């Protein structure tokens, strides 16, 4: 396997495979578990120390019911607000997963309400598009927690403390590579492919006519397409936008100011569930009420 930095400077990584070598075994059949036993993925790496951003974290690995007293897969229906990114750099996947949660029919292709039954065999099942076909992916419900506080280290549900679907989908992603560390850093377009089987398109904003790009975003959203966006790394921003990070793009609006200047507004959601846009048109200003629906709003003015 090879990992290459994004040449556009996003701080994310491309993952490639050398097909001249033997393929990694694929877990396409449901594991067999004896009655009363719980399955543990023998190939999944479970280190006691995980390094993230050059910081070492002491980790324990626990079943879902050891983390919360009464785990459930879903609280009602899945929704975008469920997504809360943890410490792992999986925003590229979670920003797309948030979009998928708003499309129940498409969501069912990936995960349904019978995908996980707590306190039974410990198996979580979902389907991801891999190598040109839908593939059954199985992982256990053993998740990383911060040693001591017993708090989930990875992604989790923001809307329900014992709702496990977000954590388990991130574990399934990591399970495809047998490690969380390998799943860190990626392109949102790869997540589109894995979660829908559709053909993704990546557009670099600085090389595109801004007015034309905005209209393409509007048209895509009207057609029900999924749209995400990512920022470049390495530059500290004072407007609340996180460098080297991916967002779900929810809506787009154009207004004309009194002076005739066109203003393009993009509404996005941070998979962290926090850290909003703080620049012009933020929710600190009354004008933001026109577009506010609980997420940050990125203001872009093109001259």
**Major sheet:** 4 strands, antiparallel
Fraction of residues in helices? 10-25%
- Looking at the structure, what is the overall shape? globular
Strand order of the largest sheet: 3-4-8-9
Note the gap between the termini.
Answer: 44 Å
Q: Which spans of ≥5 residues are poorly predicted at pLDDT below 50?
A: 19-24, 284-303
How many DSSP helices? 7
β-strand amount: 15-25%
SSE string, helices as H and strands as E: EEEEHEHHEEEEEHHHHEEEE
Radius of gyration: 20 Å
| Number of extended strands | 14
- Count up the domains: 2
* Overall mean pLDDT: 79
Structural class: alpha+beta
Explained architecture:
This protein has 303 residues and is an alpha+beta fold. A hairpin with a 4-residue loop joins strand 8 (143-146) and strand 9. Helix content is 19%, strand content 24%. It is globular, with a radius of gyration of 20 Å. The model is unreliable at 19-24 and 284-303 (pLDDT under 50). It has two domains: 2-189, no CATH class; 205-300, Alpha-Beta Complex (Cathepsin B, Chain A), CATH 3.90.70.10. The longest helix has 13 residues, at 210-222. The strands form five sheets. It has a four-stranded antiparallel sheet. A four-stranded antiparallel sheet has the order 11-12-13-14. The protein has helices spanning 64-67, 91-100, 104-110, 165-175, 180-183, 188-196, 210-222; strands at residues 2-5, 13-16, 49-52, 55-62, 83-84, 123-130, 133-140, 143-146, 151-152, 156-157, 228-230, 246-256, 262-269, 296-300.
């Amino acid at each position: 396997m090879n990992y290459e930095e994004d040449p556009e400077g996003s701080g994310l990584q491309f993952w490639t495979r050398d097909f001249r070598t033997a393929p990694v075994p694929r877990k396409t059949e449901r594991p067999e578990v004896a009655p009363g036993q719980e399955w543990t993925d023998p190939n999944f790496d479970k280190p006691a120390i995980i390094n993230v951003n050059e910081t070492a974290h002491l980790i324990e690995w626990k079943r879902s019911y050891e983390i919360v007293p009464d785990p459930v897969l879903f609280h009602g229906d899945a929704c975008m607000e469920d997504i809360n990114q943890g410490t792992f750099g999986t925003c590229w996947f979670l920003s797309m997963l948030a979009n998928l949660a708003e499309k129940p029919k498409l969501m069912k292709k990936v995960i349904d309400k019978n995908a996980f039954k707590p306190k039974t065999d410990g198996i979580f099942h979902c389907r991801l598009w891999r190598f040109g076909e839908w593939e059954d992916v199985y992982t256990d419900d053993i998740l990383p927690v911060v040693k001591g506080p017993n708090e989930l280290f990875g992604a989790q549900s923001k809307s329900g403390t014992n709702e496990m679907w977000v954590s388990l989908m991130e574990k399934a992603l990591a399970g495809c590579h047998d490690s969380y560390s390998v799943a860190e850093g990626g392109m949102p377009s790869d997540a589109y492919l894995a979660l829908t089987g559709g053909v993704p398109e990546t557009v670099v904003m600085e090389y595109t006519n801004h007015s034309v790009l905005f209209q393409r975003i509007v048209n895509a959203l009207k057609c029900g397409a999924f749209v995400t966006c990512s920022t470049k790394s390495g530059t500290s921003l004072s407007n609340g936008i996180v460098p080297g990070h991916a967002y779900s793009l929810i809506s787009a609006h154009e207004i004309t100011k009194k002076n005739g200047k066109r203003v393009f507004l993009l509404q996005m959601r941070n998979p962290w569930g926090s850290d909003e846009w703080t620049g012009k048109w933020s929710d600190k200003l009354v004008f933001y009420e026109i577009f506010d629906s609980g997420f940050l709003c990125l203001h872009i003015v093109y001259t």
